[in-house]
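re: that chain from earlier
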Amino acid sequence: MIEAATYHCPSCGAEYAADRPRWRCDCGGHLNLGPGRGLSRADIDRSDSSLWRYRAALAVDSPPRVTLGEGWTPLVERRWRDAPVLFKLESQMPTGSFKDRGTAVMLNHLLAVAVGRIHEDSSGNAGSSIATYAAAAGLACCIYVPEAAPRGKVVQIAVSGAAVIKVPGTRQAVTEAALAAAQSGDSFYASHNWHPFFIEGTKTLAYELWEQLGFRVPDNILVATGYGSNILGLERGFDELERQGEIAVRPRLFAVQAANCAAFAAAWQAGTTDYVPFEPEPTVADGIATVRPVRTAEVLAAVRRSGGGVVAVPEGVIAPAVAALGRLGLFVEPTSATAAAALDKLLADGTIAPGQTTVVVLTGHGLKAAESIGGLLQATGL
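^ sequence. v structure.
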């Protein structure tokens, strides 16, 4: 229950009870939730076909006050480059992206601690998700987006009734505008990149994969990575399963980035867990075009502990991956397709063997970027 949940600041060591609206430490650092109680098979509510089937292991009041049926997305098998691969269709979430996992849990927590007006910054998918759930909860909402954000995502935000503020410049400029708004105190910063309850939601991806695979874990999981909430959620979920004695080993986690904007890859290649400055370039994978992740060290540590890695894919392989997935009946946005493109590389160099159980997480639906996908296909002749 929420009364027992606590926040910990890795920067200064401060701890807080998670019983009031808070998104960062007084020192300015980000916060993490303390270890969860974990999940056993007996805890699963099999009458519920959403992520709330795992609510016994979530640090929020139960049952949820707002839900759109998020979670329990399909896991389908396809042949990819002559290897059997499992694709986790997070693109089938209520708003069309994996962000609904984190948003649903975060919003239910925020309702429990009685927030008022909220705001967020997003390249599109998180904004769409938070605006939609805020509308369902009756919360006033404002979303800061890049001036060049895909029109489909901006329309999805606007139709929910949220105010949309377009910010010129880089994705980092959007974040800074939202941070400045947070300082004014007029609105609570419901940031999917900062708030630890968002990661509490994404950990349910680990639970689902474990259950859908017959209470086993895959050998490898590949996921497109911008700020790293899926990587951190997967590690948190598998850690809880391991502590409960439900699993003995964990899967290798591969964080996939677009080479044109790859903060984690820059640090990984430099052999450090610290942020490494780099010059970002435009990428069609706008959903992971993150210049300055909040939890760089923690994401890299999670990848390293799993025995996985960080893979940066060049711009030229993203469109072919979109097309190849489409020909398998999997229509996803370019951001999602980076994970499939990375699998090509990992299969080719022997890092992943065809006989292993490999899951590629498809994070966002193609309808969110249909216009840009059409342009890619036309430009490349695919």
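Residues 109 and 309 are 32 Å apart (CA to CA).
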